[in-house]
Amino acid sequence: MKDKMVLAYSGGLDTSVAIKWLKEKYKCEIIAFTVNIGTEKKDLSFIEKKAVKLGALKCVVADATEEFVNDYVFPAIQANLLYEGYNLHTALGRPLMAKLMVEVARQEGATMIAHGCTGKGNDQVRFDVSTIALAPELKIIAPARDWGMTREETIEYAKKHNIPVPITVASPYSIDENIWGRAIECGVLEDPWKEPPEDVFQFTKPVAEAPDEPEYVQIGFEKGIPVSLNGKKLGGVRLIKQLHETAGKHGIGRVDHIENRLVGIKSREIYEAPAGTVIIAAHQALEEMTLSKDQLRYKQKVTIDYADLVYNGLWFSGLRRDLAAYVASTQQFVTGTVRVKLFKGNCMVVGRKSPYSLYSFNLATYDKGDTFDPKDSASFIRLWGLPVKTQAQVQGFGGLKGKKK
Ligand code: ARG
Predict the structure, then answer these.
(1) What is the Cα–Cα distance from 226 to 94, expressed in whole angstroms?
(2) 292 is in which domain, residue-wise?
(3) What is the pLDDT of residues 335-384, one digit of tens each?
(4) Catalytic: 182?
(5) Is the distance from CB of 147 to CB of 156 less than 8 angstroms?
(6) H helices within 109-235, ranges in order?
(7) CB of 126 within 8 A of CB of 72?
(8) CATH number of the domain encompassing residue 64
């Protein structure tokens, strides 16, 4: 009996060519695996048939959108995970895909796992490291890293072997999308001076076409997780999809960014994450109200490390588990509602409330009802400034040294 290999199959050119190429090179059976984590336009039954037609033993299809949102996106929201300022989404999807592939490999008795990542990106790292963590016994193959064919040569190979070249190949862009966001690179975008043409965007309208009236949305959170939209309880998948539409219509969530990849390359990438932009802004606003200053400061530091770790493919690591537990603990009082104004590409938090709010009107007000005693301030400031005064008296500052006693 031949060995079996599970191939992450997207239906695109590279993974279609890979079915044929891997079968020949490794003399194995291919089990294609295709998963939906919120890509609306993916026609899974078409992809399934195509894989079998191209020579796969079978194609296993899964919808993991719910699992993706609950186990990957929600923890990312609680942590406000941003990498170099943009919303992580591809980096969150890869470990889940790897986990599902490992499950299929075990069910099918496969000894190898393959994916279509190139040798220049982050995704190869995320797939490989996740697989190593979950199933060190599986051999990992990345054909596009090994075959050394250029884009044109891959198309030639496809034509020679009667592999249909999808029309999307005509598109010069490399796109990755899931329910949490969309990333677009290559083509004209490789010139960092060129403005992204409008056709790269799909989730968001250009600001010029956004409505002339602002729109307000209210997002309800429980323990840092979004649970309602405009007062209506919604599951994560529906909430994100609805907000995607609304915020996308107002042109919110576009990012044009030069980023630092793990493999040392700077790359220019365009992102669209309308729902993610609004949810993270709202979540941060609620944290401002419900966390102490120390908690907020500390959490911000953790967030940077956490985002790097996820970006760098270490989702299945002990440290990631520890950080997630820390973040979950910070969220126990992050419950409440945030009002956001969406207008012409901007999302502005304009209201927030929480039963656990640390904001005290009576302490903050300059009007009637003030309970803050300013006399306390004067004594406090004398103590606060004491070390500064001592040091200045002895050591002075620059030209002022020794002038005053
Ligand atoms: N740069 C992003 C990341 O490393 C997205 C990678 C996939 N992008 C793409 N256009 N295919 O997470």
Answers:
(1) 23
(2) 177-353
(3) 999 999 999 999 999 999 999 999 999 999 999 889 999 999 999 999 99
(4) no
(5) no
(6) 123-134, 143-146, 151-160
(7) no
(8) 3.40.50.620
Cα dist. 349→208, 216, 336 in Å?
A: 22, 10, 14
- Whether residues 221 and 317 share a domain: the answer is yes
Q: What angle do CA 220, 221, 223 make, to 5 degrees?
A: 160
Taking Cα atoms as reference points, which of 197, 187, 242, 199 lies closest to residue 217?
242
Ligand 1 centroid–CA 42 distance in Å is: 18
Structural domains counted in the chain = 2
Residue with tokens 């537990």: 325
Residue 392 lies in a domain: no
Inside any domain, residue 403: no
Q: What is the pLDDT of residues 224-276, one digit of tens each?
A: 999 999 999 999 999 999 999 999 999 999 999 999 999 999 999 999 999 99
Closest CA to 34 of 12, 66, 67: 12
Do 222 and 314 reside in the same domain of the chain?
A: yes
Q: How far is the CA of 176 from the centre of ligand 1 (A)?
A: 6
- Choose the final residue of a domain: 142, 175, 208: 175
Which protein residue has the closest C-alpha to ligand 1 atom 4? 122
Q: Considering only 31-45, 49-63, 117-131, 183-197, which range has the smallest mean pLDDT?
A: 31-45
